[in-house]
Amino acid sequence: MTDTAAAHVFDVDQTNFEADVLQASLDTPILVDFWATWCGPCKTLGPMLEKLAAEYAGAFRLAKVDVDANQELAAMFGIRSIPTVMLVKDGQIADGFAGALPEGQLREFLSRHVQPLDDAGDEVEADAPAETPEQAINRLQQAIAAEPDRAELKLDLAVALAQAGRSDAAETELDALPANLATDTRAVRLRSQLDLARTLKDAPALADLRQRVQADPADWEARDLLGVRLLLGDDPAAGLDQFLHILEKARDWNGGAAKKRLLAAFNTLDDAELVGRYRRRMASLLF
Questions:
Q1: How many angstroms separate the CA atoms of 56 and 108, rounded?
Q2: Which of 36, 88, 215, 234 has the most CB atoms less than 10 A away?
Q3: Parallel, antiparallel, or unpaired: how do β-strands 30-35 and 61-66 relate?
C-alpha cells in the first residue's frame, strides 16, 4: 500500500466500528471492505479499492474488516460471501456489492455516491485513465500466462470479455472455471447477463420494440424484449418495469417468463437498493 493510500485506509473491528465508520460517515462516506487472507478475489479487489481511495484523496475512506477476526461483526451485517463491500453514508448503508468487480465498475459504483475532490479528480484524470475492456483483456491474459494457477484471474477475464461484447469467449471462460469459482457472485451475475443477452440475438431494435408496445400494450413478446434491452442498456429500472407489467397482466404468458426474467435480472444487478425495491414489488404481485 502506498503512503497516499494508507492515509485513507484503516482497519476496523467491533470496538471502533461505531465511531470510525457509522459516526465518521456523517462527515465522510466510508467504504467497508469485508475480506479474508485466504480469499483469492479479495487479493484482486483490495488493491484496487486502496488505489481508488488514494486517487479520491479523502472524498471517501476505506475501512477493512477481516471477517475471520471479526465474525460477529460480519454476521451482524449478514455477510455471506467475500469480498463484500458496503458504502456507509450519513450513518446508514447506502449501497453495496459482492464479488471483485473490475475497475471500471468500481469507478461507476463510486460515481453514484461520491464526488472526487477537485484536486483528486484532476489526478484521476491525468494519472489513471479508465481501462478499456480490450486493455483489461490484454492485461489479464498476460497475468494468466504468468500465473496460470490463479483461477480468479480467469473470472476477471470472462467479465472483461463480456464487457468487450465477446460473449462466446466469455462463456467459454466461465465454463472452464473450477467449481469454487463457478458459484462466485460475479460468475452467477455474468452467466445471467450472457443468458439475457442471448435472447436479443436477431431481436428488433429498441425503437422498434417501443413502437410495437405503444401500438399494442399486450404484445408481450415485444414488451419482454424491450425489458431485456433496457435492463442491459442504460435504464435497468425501466426494464424491470416491463417485466412487472407482464407479471401483473399476463402472469402465465410463455410459461411464467416474466417471473423468470425478474429473477435473472436481479442476479445481474449490483444495485442492492434497486433490487430490493423490485423484489418487494414482485412479491406484492405474486402473494
A1: 13
A2: 88
A3: parallel
42 is catalytic: yes
How many other C-beta atoms can be found within 10 angstroms of the C-beta atom of residue 130?
A: 11
CATH number of 133-198: 1.25.40
Note whether 74 and 34 are within 8 A (CB).
Answer: yes
> SS3 for 89?
strand
Grid cell of 101 as nine digits: 468487480
Domain range list for the chain: 3-127, 133-198, 206-286
What does the alpha-carbon distance between residue 84 and residue 100 come to, in Å, rounded to a whole number?
Answer: 8
Domain 206-286 classified CATH 1.25.40?
yes
Sequential pLDDT tens for the chain (287 residues): 545 556 789 999 989 998 999 999 998 999 999 999 999 889 889 989 998 998 888 899 999 999 999 998 888 888 888 999 999 988 888 888 888 888 878 888 888 888 776 554 444 444 555 678 788 899 889 988 888 888 788 888 988 898 888 888 999 999 988 887 787 777 888 888 898 888 988 899 999 999 999 999 999 999 999 999 999 888 999 999 999 999 999 999 999 999 999 998 988 887 878 888 999 999 999 87
Helices (H) and strands (E) in the chain, counts: 16, 5
Catalytic status, residue 39: yes
**Is the peptide bond prior to 83 cis by the omega test (within 30 degrees of 0)?**
yes
**8 A C-beta contact, residue 1 and residue 9:** yes
Please tell me the distance from the alpha carbon of residue 16 to that of residue 197, in angstroms, as a whole number. Answer: 45
Q: Do 133-198 and 206-286 have matching folds?
A: yes
Active-site position among 9, 42, 45, 222: 42
From the candidates 21, 30, 32, 39, give the one annotated as an active-site residue. Answer: 39
